Amino acid sequence: MFAFDRSRDIRPVDATAKVLFILGHRLSEWAIASWFIGLNSYLDDQCPKDLLEEFPEWVIEAAHDAIDECTRGR
Fold it and tell me: How many CA atoms lie within 13 Å of 20's alpha carbon, on the beta-carbon side?
C-alpha cells in the first residue's frame, strides 16, 4: 500500500516508478521489496516506504546510493 498515493485516487506514488527503474536492473524483486521496508542508513535509519510521498527525491537518491554500493561490492 505504501507505493500508492491515497490522495490521488490510489494511483502509484510518482517516485515508485523511478526507484523501481533504478533498483530493477541490479536487484531481485524480493531484494527490492526488502529495500523499501528496511531501515536505510542513507535515510537516517528510516524506511524508504515511510518517506516515499513526503520526500521522494531523498528516496530516489537512496536508491542510487544502494546501486552504487552494489557496484562497489559492499
Answer: 10
Q: How far apart are CA 49 and CA 46, in angstroms?
A: 9
* 29-37 helix and 14-24 helix, angle to the nearest 10 degrees: 130
Classify residue 21 as exposed, middle or buried by CB count within 10 Å of its CB (0-12, 13-18, 19+): exposed
In DSSP notation, 11-37 reads EEPHHHHHHHHHHHTTS-HHHHHHHHH
Q: Which tens digits make up the pLDDT trace of 16-56?
A: 889 999 999 899 999 999 999 999 999 999 999 999 989 99
Q: What is the reported pTM?
A: 0.82
